[in-house]
Amino acid sequence: MSHHHDIHADHSPDAIRERLAGDTKRSYIKDFIYGAIDGAVTTFAIGGMAG
Q1: Which of 17, 27, 40, 41 has minimal Cβ neighbours within 10 Å of its Cβ?
Q2: Which residues of the chain fall short of a pLDDT of 50?
Q3: Is there a contact between 40 and 33 (Cβ–Cβ < 8 Å)?
Q4: How confident is the model at residue 9, as a pLDDT?
């Protein structure tokens, strides 16, 4: 399957080295959204367990 080939190519030592040497600019918007979702899920899970 070609999809699996792409995954292996993206995780080769050369590809990883190239990503690490690249631009280090980062957007925290995605981290904020994932953190908010994680917090909401955790809150409801604990609230559900408590009764």
Answers
A1: 27
A2: 1
A3: no
A4: 85
Tell me the two tokens of residue 16: 């990883």
The Cα–Cα gap between 14 and 37 comes to 34
Domain range summary for the chain, segments of one domain joined by + = 25-51
The per-residue pLDDT for 5 is: 63
Half-sphere exposure of 20 (CA within 13 A, CB side): 7
Here the tokens at position 8 are 């292996």
User: CA 28, 29, 31 angle in degrees (round to 5)?
Assistant: 65
Residue matched to tokens 């904020």: 32
Cα torsion through 33, 29, 32, 15, rounded to 10: 90
Alpha-carbon distance 25 to 23, whole Å? 6
